[in-house]
Amino acid sequence: MSVADKTDKKSGGFGETINVIAQALILALIIRTLFFQPFSIPSGSMRPTLLEGDYLFVTKWAYGYSKHSLPFSPDLFEGRIWGSQPERGDVVVFKYPPNPSLDYIKRVIGLPGDRIQVRRGVLYINDEAVPRELVGQIDNPDITEENRPVDVYRETLPNGVSYNTLDLSPNAVGDDTREFVVPSAHYFMMGDNRDNSTDSRFTVGYVPEENLVGRANIIFFSIADGASPLEIWKWPSDLRASRLLNFVR
């Protein structure tokens, strides 16, 4: 075999490797854009449903696709393609309206046309109080971030979706609000950690349907104390095994 033949084989091998890597990257981009996107929980606003250190998959097709379905949100088109409306109670990742470079995650409380208000800590939808039952207390700093017991209430929305909320204080600033009327093609979002959530009661405001990224689907990993999933040596003490592969509700 000549030197030229050997060089051609080496060049072909390197080129094939590059081709495989490129195909893998394209496939990963397609999956991330159209199907699933990984997302890590950055704050405690959705406690006790979601905790800091939870890693979950977001289903991208749930509400159709907008420019925010693509990396870096390029202005290729407006509105949504194959769009569908979220259901009340869905946990949704969306782009923060005042700064779309930021991802937020909250629960859909108000649909277009709804009137939303909080009175003395009780949520009202279209002037009807949402049933709210005290189910107990949590005394676990990993869940509450408090060094004391915290009341847990079970809320049930008009469509039957039920979930737990935390009540850190009986007189928090978000416990009494004005009435919000949700505009067309917008949604009203709230965190389950009602007294520690920047949501539609405050700076988030109404969330345009174009800003929806996808529905939170399943927790595939969870680790406490701010540890990285790559710090395998911390798994024995910090891995939250009971949260793995839990569906988000």
UniProtKB/TrEMBL annotation:
The molecular function terms of the Gene Ontology recorded here are: signal peptidase activity
The record ties this protein, via Gene3D superfamilies, to: Umud Fragment, subunit A
Question: What top-level branch of life does the organism fall under?
Answer: Bacteria
Q: Which catalysed reactions does the entry list for this protein?
A: Cleavage of hydrophobic, N-terminal signal or leader sequences from secreted and periplasmic proteins
According to the record, the segments passing through the membrane are 20-39
Q: Which UniProt keywords apply?
A: Hydrolase, Membrane, Protease, Transmembrane, Transmembrane helix
Could you tell me the EC number(s) of this protein? 3.4.21.89
Q: Give residue ranges for domain Peptidase S26.
A: 16-221
Q: Which CDD domains match?
A: S26_SPase_I (cd06530)
Q: Which InterPro entries match?
A: LexA/Signal_pep-like_sf (IPR036286), Pept_S26A_signal_pept_1 (IPR000223), Pept_S26A_signal_pept_1_CS (IPR019758), Pept_S26A_signal_pept_1_Lys-AS (IPR019757), Peptidase_S26 (IPR019533)
Record localization: Membrane
Q: Which EC class does it fall in?
A: hydrolase
Topology versus the membrane: Single-pass type II membrane protein
For this chain, the family text in UniProt reads: Belongs to the peptidase S26 family.
Provide the protein name.
Signal peptidase I
Lineage, broadest ranks? Bacteria, Pseudomonadati, Pseudomonadota, Alphaproteobacteria, Hyphomicrobiales
